[in-house]
Design brief:
Elements lengths: L19 E5 L10 E5 H6 L11 E2 L7 E6 L2 E6 L2 E6 L5 E3 L10 E3 L18 E6 L2 E8 L13 E5 L3 E5 L3 E6 L5 E3 L8 E3 L26 E6 L9 E7 L6 E7 L7 E6 L5 E3 L8 E4 L7 H4 L4 E4 L25 E9 L7 E11 L9 E9 L4 E8 L5 E3 L56 H6 L3 E3 L5 E6 L5 E6 L5 E3 L2 H8 L7 E3 L9 E3 L5 H27 L1
Parallel strand pairs: 7-8, 14-15, 20-21, 21-22
Antiparallel strand pairs: 1-2, 3-4, 4-5, 5-6, 6-7, 9-10, 10-11, 12-13, 13-14, 16-17, 17-18, 18-19, 19-20, 23-24, 24-25, 25-26, 26-27, 28-31, 29-30, 32-33
């Protein structure tokens, strides 16, 4: 090869490992030994190890950037004289770390708030894909139609091909979203849309499995709510709300439902002091049921345990303010009942039933609606409840008992010698009795006792009459609304007695208790008679007649003796 200047040599565009490069070995003393050659491969393999500050492969204008040997079988890159990238013997890559994690293929350490920055220019989104043995299991990045149908590329997305699991405390499963979109907290196999499994705690520990709360100190009337709906809307459904009542942070619990084409409104409330309101947000009673406008007055000032308020229902229309039903199969004596009970000892909280009111079917005939109303009371001697009174479907009132002596079947006024059985406008048509009525006649109950001034003259002035009643009774029917209609019926039988006005006239100025005026201030009010009080004048008249008979008999004897 002829001698040529190096600057005149042809450029080598595709060097091979074995191509020679002339080298001047300045360590040789003899000039003849200074000129040597080296192959391209030998030159690269012979590069110095270098350091982060002085890489073996560096740039002339910036010697702190380049590649160097980070250790045995470790390739490292430095920028600004600091080790930036490390690839170890197991092909683990460390960015900002000289010792990549043994369980990671890529280990990133950075001091900024986003050590990893991923940007995609695709309109359909993009991000990081994770695979298991070549099968995609997880994607995280931006959304877009490529990764989630109907989503925008500006949406963030985490997509699992099967279950999505979040773990805490090292290897503890915390949250699971399975492939059927069921959310499980504390369980790996949720069976419902949302399922929370928690370790039970004592109530006093204030341990809650789910908390929904406001983010500030709160204002009166503000609430935290949970909404439930069977349709894809937030304006129709039901809700549960915790409502702040006052600055003391006492809370009420409200339940809301929506009527047809209406937003949810409150129907039930439990106040902070434990009162239950149905139809009212301000219950006064322990349980307060309201339909319409609340009442005011004595009841509001003296709260009891239960109040039911609603519009009026007709007595015979089939409606009522409160229903107590029995769902037993059809049978005689089945129906709803109300028991009234209380404690019966001073040494325990044990209670017994004092009385029962029951409305029941009167017979076992299907579709027959005849019923009765019965009253039972607890009887110590009988050892339980005993029926005391029954009102039948035909209006009969029966009193019953199982005692003997003076306690048998009595209907009595609370206070002695007070009250009436009926009045002039509500008379009994007939009274059936075995021994009649018993009239008190004890001398110890009387005062101003005198001989009767009413006798033969009084009896002689009375006019016994026969008569028929203008209204002898009533025919009872019911109109189409179930209201009772009583139609008067003329009397047909002849009765015998006296006329009250004539008896009063016969008494003259005598105060005769056998004659009564319904309203003492109204002389035109109805007049009545106590017929048993005629017995004394009759006896007096009889005695006077007997005295006259005895006198006449004595005269007859005297005449006969002449």
């Amino acid at each position: 090869m002829a001698d040529r200047k190096i600057s005149e040599l042809t450029a080598l565009t595709t060097p091979a490992t074995g191509d020679l490069i002339p080298i001047v070995d300045i360590s040789e003393v003899a000039a003849a030994d200074k000129n040597k050659s080296i192959t391209v491969g030998e030159l690269l393999r012979g590069a110095p190890d270098g350091t982060a500050a002085a890489p073996g492969f560096a740039f002339e204008s910036d010697g702190g950037n380049g590649m160097f040997l980070g250790g045995t079988d470790i390739l490292a890159f430095s920028t600004g004289g600091t080790q930036a990238v490390t690839i170890d013997a197991s092909q683990r890559v460390g960015l900002g770390s000289s010792s990549p994690d043994a369980n990671s293929r890529l280990h990133i350490v950075g001091s900024s708030y986003q050590p990893l920055y991923v940007n995609t220019t695709s309109a359909n989104g993009g991000g990081a894909v994770f695979l298991q043995q070549g099968t995609q299991t997880l994607y995280t990045g931006t959304a877009g139609s490529t990764w989630l149908s109907g989503s925008a590329a500006t949406d963030g997305l985490v997509r699992a091909e099967a279950n999505l699991i979040l773990a805490t405390n090292g290897n503890t499963r915390a949250v699971t979203i399975d492939s059927s979109q069921r959310l499980g907290v504390g369980t790996s196999g949720p069976a419902f849309r949302t399922e929370i499994v928690d370790t039970l705690q004592a109530d006093a520990n204030l341990h809650y499995s789910l908390v929904v709360r406001g983010d500030d100190s709160g204002t009166d009337g503000e609430s935290a709510q949970i909404f439930l709906s069977a349709i894809n809307a937030t304006s129709r459904g039901a809700a549960i709300a915790a409502i702040r009542n006052s600055g003391s942070n006492d809370h009420s619990l409200a339940f809301k439902t929506s009527a047809a084409s209406a937003t949810p409104s409150e129907k039930v409330r439990i106040t902070s002091d434990g009162k239950l309101g149905l139809g009212t947000s301000s219950p006064i009673f322990t349980a307060d049921i309201l339909s319409g406008t609340a009442n005011t007055g004595a009841n509001a000032n003296n709260p009891s345990q239960l109040s039911v308020t609603g519009p009026n229902k007709t007595l015979t229309g089939g409606g009522a303010t409160v229903f107590v039903n029995s769902n037993s199969d059809l049978a005689v004596d089945t129906g709803g009942s109300i028991a009234l009970s209380g404690r019966n000892t001073t040494s325990s909280t044990n209670s017994v039933v004092w009385g029962v009111v029951k409305g029941a079917k009167e017979n076992a005939t299907s579709t027959n609606t005849a019923g009765y109303l019965a009253f039972a009371t607890a009887n110590h001697a009988a050892g339980g409840l005993v029926e005391r009174m029954r009102i039948t479907s035909t209006g009969y009132i029966f009193a019953s008992g199982n005692e003997s002596g003076s306690n048998v079947n009595r209907v009595a006024p609370v206070t002695d010698n007070v009250g009436y059985l009926g009045d002039s406008g509500h008379r009994w048509q007939a009274v059936y009795a075995v021994n009649g009525t018993i009239q008190t006649s004890d001398k110890r109950e009387k005062t101003d006792i005198q001989d009767s001034v009413l006798g033969a003259d009084f009896i002689r002035s009375l006019r016994p009459v026969s008569y028929r009643w203008k209204i002898g009774g009533y025919e009872t029917t019911f109109d189409e609304d179930g209201n009772r209609v009583d139609t008067p019926v003329p009397g047909v039988r002849n009765h015998y007695g006296f006329i009250a006005q004539e008896v009063k006239q016969a008494c003259g100025n005598a105060d005769f208790g056998g004659w009564l005026l319904e309203d003492l201030d109204d002389p035109n009010s109805k007049q009545s008679l106590r017929l048993h009080e005629l017995i004394s004048p009759i006896v007096k008249a009889l005695q006077e007649a007997l005295d006259e008979i005895d006198t006449l008999k004595a005269k007859v004897v005297a005449l006969e003796a002449q």
